[in-house]
Structure formats: structure tokens, C-alpha cells
Amino acid sequence: MSRSNSGRPSAGTPVVTVEKLTIAQPHGRVLLHEADFSLAAGEVVILAGPSGSGKSTLVNLLSGAISAADEGWRIAGHVTYAGARVDLARERITLGGVVFQNFALFDELTVRQNLTIAADHNEAVGDALLAAIDGLLKDVERDVPVNSCSGGQRQRVAIGRTLLGNHPVLFLDEPNSGLDVSASKRLAELIRSLSTEIGVPVVIIAHHYRHLIDVADRVLMLDPRQHALVELPADARRLERELMAIEAEPDETVPGSDMPPAPARATATVAVSAGPMRSSTVWRIGWTLRFLAGYLWELCFSPSALLFVGLGSVIVGFVTTWFIFQYLPFRDLLLPIIHSDALAGVAFAELRVLAPLTTAVLISTRNAALIGADIGHKVYSDQIKAMRNLNVPHDIYLTGAILTASAVASVVLTLMSECLTGWVAMATWSFIFPEDSTYMWRDQYFQRLWPPGQLMMDGTGWIAAKAIPSIVGAAGIALYFGYRAKSTVVDINQSIAQALIWGLSFVLIWQSVLTLVEFKFVSARLESTF
Amino acid sequence: MRRGTPHTYALTVAVLVISGVLGIWGFRGSPLLDTADARVFARPGWTEGMETPSSYPAYRLSADGTAIPVGRAVLLDGDRVEMRLFPDLETVSYEDSRVVLLETDVKALWALVPGASKNEIAGIGERLVGIMRDRFVAMVGQPAFVVDYREPLQAIVEDAYAGMWRDPKMQLIGRTVREMFDQADGERLAAALLPIALPKLRRAVFEMVVPSWDAMHDLVVDGKLDTRPLERAAAEVMVDPQVHRLMMRHLFDIAEDERAWRVGALMADSFLDALIADPRLEPLVDRMLRDKRFARELRTLETELSAMSMEVFSRIVERNNGRPDTLAVRVIRYILLNRRRLVALVVKDGSAAARELSRYEPLVEIRS
Fold first, then answer.
1. Which residues of B touch A336 (CB under 8 A)?
2. How far lies B150's CA from each of A185, B282, B288, in Å?
3. Per-residue pLDDT tens for B48-77?
4. Which of A126, A200, A435, B15 has the fewest other C-beta atoms within 10 Å?
5. Closest partner residue to A438 among B2, B70, B88, by Cβ?
6. Which is it for strands B80-85 and B38-42: parallel, antiparallel or unpaired?
7. Signed CA dihedral, A184, A186, A189, A191: sign only
8. Does the model's pTM come out above 0.80?
9. How far is A225 from B139, CA to CA, in rounded Å?
């Protein structure tokens, strides 16, 4: 393989070879059957085919979004790059970097952070590529939120970010979708010059190939009739004829004996060794902390979370105390008799049952909606795929950070709720009995819950056992529904609704069961203190 | 995942700080007040065996005897009791008060009853005795009683009384009763009673010993002495209101002695054991209670007893404001539950409560 001065293969040199590639979808439909193709350095290839023919699947396979380890997929074939040969039935590869149709930029990050996160999780790119990326983004402000950029700028940021992933191949998924004619032409020229400059093969998936085919070297067409990848010249008319011919004929099925065998369980362990096709996901402490800080803010410390808990605590502290002491039957007669025990009982109900329950219900509901929306949106907008493609460990930065932030939220917000509930109960009681000492309230309120000389309040472990798993569990449920595949915005809404319903159900069941167990454990001991 | 602005960060910090301060205020008290105003006292020996650390409420008694919570007493290891007064109560201080530790028993319940209520209870007691006496006299005066019940009942009671004194425990009890009588100023009682009783008794003895034909005949022929004058005199002494008052007072003095409760319980136990063991008693009492000839007296007695027991209970539990007293209720509850608990009282020197509780030893402060 001849190489240029920049260390990359010379233009026209084959860099990637795919042999006998067979892909069958989970429901059994065969997309490709023993297809062979190669990609050369610096060439631009149009990947065409009718809708549903498997263009995106092919790109997803070669970019690591799917593999034989994923449930139902049956994949066979080999890929050779830089002298390494990978069995696709046994390994996940990240051969290509993908520029997604909707760009899949990480919208909570700035332009610079979108680029940096890709660079931080992949092998460093050469100076020539860096210069090319700088040229690509010369008119883009780096320190602004990526959402504030124009569509064209966002596309170039996405291309730059993908290039920083340092993959052997660059995939562009419908790059001219939504662009007018002149913009589409400018994009085509940009892709051509970029491909030539950086010397990597560029594969473009396009329905609207008119202006892109002008800069392409050749066309690979997925033919669902033959389940084959047919090479065509870069001729728009020829491609159009072929596609029309395909649409005119019905699909054929591959005989069952030719179907690739279902992968054995061993293939579920995908390769994680180093190498351009076998990326190993690495995590960076800086990014971990950054995502964690973001979710801590969102799920625990943001004013709306504090407001939720604050209002809930006020209601619990006020209502319980007010109604017990104001609306007690035979109040004048009974109050002197039961006042002390009533306060002790109110303390138990408020601090050990109602405050943790209210906090868990309110925060789980709020956070389930936020997590469901956040992760659902990331799945829908291909950000999760982009993270996988860029070797960014979403299971640490998103899942881990969300669960950790939820655990912190459960501790911080429950503690805050306990503080506010206690104080509001005291203030309410003082309002009802203005002449009595608040220290008397404290003495009787905590007489069984926090005896003098004891470091922690009695039952702190029970409170933690109720609050932490219920809030973290609800977050886990929201993550589960959030990560499920989304094809429409309605799917996101449904995942939010399901996260709310199941998350809240889990919280209520967990708290109820644990409270019953708690009562069983403590009732005998408490009874002896009366 | 959104990020906040400086304003939202500041708001968050403010809310967390305020929550923390309110939490400290609610859980530990005002940061502006000294919450560590604790004194350590020597722990009385009689609390030995009680769990440590264990805490009990402390009260002070207002002028009308109402208990007001003022702090907490904590039994500590090393024979110490720590008293913590609520710091926002300016009316209570250790300087002009003493701390008393009480076990929640009947004796403490009685000690907590204000003097005025005790007088009222004494009055109720007098009335009760009078009513019981009247009903009893009305019943025993009926021919039905004399004919059908007097002799068998008398025999049962005499046998039970004799049986009680055969119990070896009564030797000890007799000695204790004598000591109690001495300590309760028995001589003073006797001196007060004698001027009332002696003239009546003297006259009776005189009547009894003055010879008459009938008397001489009974003594010589039947070997009998006519004791009716003496019986009449004793009855007159018993119904004298002055005697009642003196006996009640003396009874309450004895009641404040812990030994009185134990002795009383032992005597009652022995007497009742002997009484109940007698197979003649149950059918006799049953027959008597069903006897329509006594129905009126028994119904009246039952009504009066019920009303008076409620009245006595109210005097023990209620205070001047007409509401049940928290501390009295607490003591009764622990008596009913048969649980050993303590309460501490901070008693102001020279107060009415100090006089009522003078029998309790104050705790001695340990100064470091």
C-alpha cells in the first residue's frame, strides 16, 4: 500500500476490503448476501438504493452501531484494513465515522466541546487533518452552544467532529437533505476537496444524489433483488434507471440454506482491543465530572427540584401538625393527656414516613420525566449512536452520571425535606401553642426518634433504605424507557409517560413494602417506650 | 442536561443554606440560645438497675399544681443524672429550686395532688365512710339481716381475721405498723382522740358496772356481762365528725409513707386470702346481694360509690383549670402498664409544691 507524505494511503489505493458480507435483520429478512466491495483512499462513493434496502444498516454495521452481538442480527463476513482482518460474526468494528443526517451533535455542549469530546476519546489525528478541520470550521464560533449555529455550520461541525474520531472511512448520511440547490452544490464541492485533502474514503448515503454524484468516483447500489452490492459508474442517469428497474420488480428471498448461521453466544463479546477498527471505549475523568455535574444540577440542585421538595415538605409539616392538634376530637380534654405522645407520633409519621415518601414521589416523578425526555431525545436524534461511533462511553457519562446524581439527589433532597418538614412542624405547633416552649416541642417531638446523646436520628438507615433505592430505581426505569429505540417524537412522549407510570409505581411499592417491614421491626420496640 | 446561570446557582445555594439553618433550628434549637445549660447531679441509689442512658421528662409544678414540662433528666453511667432545662424558659432556674426524682408509682401520684385537692378528697372520704356506715347500719338493722345473715357472716369474718393473724408475715407487719404509727405522730392522734372518746367510754363503763338485778342475774346465772353500753359508746365515737376528720388526716399521713402501701397490701392480701378460702362466703354474699329486702340500700350505695370514685379520680387527675394534668396522666399510665419510669421535678423553694414534696430527697449537684 503506497502512502502519501501525511502518512495516509495515497489516493486510489484500496484501504478497506469487505468480503462475503451477509446481513440478516432480526425478523429474518436478508439485506445483503455474500457481498464484496472495497474502498480506496481519497475516493468519494455514493451508496444508493431504494428505501429499506439496507443502506443505513450497512453504515451502522461498519460504524459499530450494530453488531452480531445485538439481539437478532445475523451477520457474517470479513473486513480487512491496514493488514488486520476482522470477522464480523465475532467482533464489533468502528471502521467508519458517521455524520448523521440530523448531525447528532451533543446539544448541551458548545462547538468546541463537541470537537474536544471526539478528540479526547480517539487517537490523535495528524496536523494535516487538524488544519483541514480548522479550514472547514473557519467561520464557526467555537465557544457558543452548538444549537445556536446555523444548519450549514452544524453540518460542518458534525463533519469536523467525526473526522476527529480518526476513523478509516467517513460516512455521510443524507448530507444534502433539506439543502437548496446551491447549498447542495457547495456541500458536494466541500466533500470532494475534503476527501482529497484528508485522503480517507468518503461514503455518502443519498436519496438526493443529483449534485453529489458529480463529485463521486463511483456508485455502490444495494440491489434488494439480488441482495447484492452492485458497482456502477458515477452517472446519475444510469443510477436512476437502475433504481427504477428495482422498484418495478418484486423482492426475492434467499433460500433458507443460504442464510448465515445465527451467531453463537461467544460472539456477544465484541472486540475491545486497540486498533483503528477495534476501538476500545475509554473514559476521561474530566468528561465524567462534567456530565456528572450537569446531571447533578439538573436532577438534584436546580431550583425547580428544590422547590418541589420544599413545597412538599411544607405541606407535610403543616398539614400533619395542624390537623392533629387543631381538629382533635375532645381537644381540651385529650390534649393534656396525649400531647406528648401525639408529638412523638407526628414526628415518626413526618420524618420517617411522609418526608421520605413525599420527596421520593416528587423527585422521582420530576426526574423520570427529565431523564426520559433527555435520553429519549438523545436516542431519537442519534446522539447515542454518535457517542458509540466516537468511542464516548455513554454508559458512564449518561447512565452512570444519572444514577449517581439520582443517588446524591435522594440523600440531599431527603435531608433537605427532613430539615424543612421538622421546622415547619415546629413553626405550626408554635402558632397553635404560642405560649409553650419550642424546646418542649423538640423534647417531645424527638423523645423516641432522637434520644439525647444519640449521634443520628433513630431509623436513619430505614429512611436511606426507602429513599435512595426508590429514587435511583425510578431513574433506572426512566433510563430503560429512554434508551429504547425511537423513530418518532411520539415515541419520546410515550417513553416519558411510561417512565413516569412505572417509576412512580416502583417508588410507591418500594416505600410501602419497606414501611410495612419497618413497622414490623420497630413497632415492638417503640411500643415498649410508651 | 441544562446548566444554570449565576442567578440560579445563587438561588440554589441560598435555598440549601436556609434549609440547613432551619433544619438546625428545628432539630437542635435556636442558634442564639445556649442549649448546653445542663447540670449534673448524683444519681439516687434507688435508681440502680435502671437502663442507662435513659431519659425522662422534667416538670415544674405551677401554683395550682399543673405540671409544666421544663426539660429532661438523663440517667447516665457513673451514678450521674444530667438535667437539661429548656433554655427559652426564663421562669425556671436551678438557683432557687431543687430537683427531685420520682418513680411513677401511686405514692408519686398522691404526692403530686395539690393540697387543696387532698383536702377535698379527705372530705369525699368522710362522706363515703358516712354513707357506707348509714347503708350498713340500715342493712344490719333490718330483721332480715339479723335473722338470715348476721351469725354466718360474723363467723366467716372472725375466722378470716384469726387466719390472717396466724400468717407468719403478720409478725413483721405488726412491728412495721407500730413504727409507722409512731412516726406518723400517733401519740398526737391519741391525744386528740381521747378527749372526745373518753367521756363517752367512761359513761358506758359506769353504766356497765353499776349493779342491777338483771345484770347480776345474767352474770351469776348465765356468766354473761352486758356490754351493750360499751358498744353504744363505741358507735357514738365512730360517728363523731371530729373523730372522722382526725382519722382521715392521720390516714393520709400514713398513706404518704411508702411502707403503708406495702403493709396495707400485705394485710389486705392475707385477710382476703383467708376470706376467699372460706367456702361459706360466696353463696352467702351472693344470696345477700340478690335479697330483695336489701335492694334499696345496695342500689343507693352503688350509686354513691360510683359518683364518689369519679370525684376522687377527678381530684387526683384534674387541676384548677379543669383539665387533666399531663404529669398525673403519665404517672397513671405507667402504673397501669406496670412499667418502671421516672419523672424529674424542679421544685421552687418555698412553694406549695415544695411542701407537698418535702418527703422526697432533692438531688445533690456534682460540681466539677
1. 323-326, 329
2. 131, 15, 11
3. 888 888 888 899 888 888 888 888 898 888
4. A435
5. B88
6. antiparallel
7. negative
8. no
9. 121
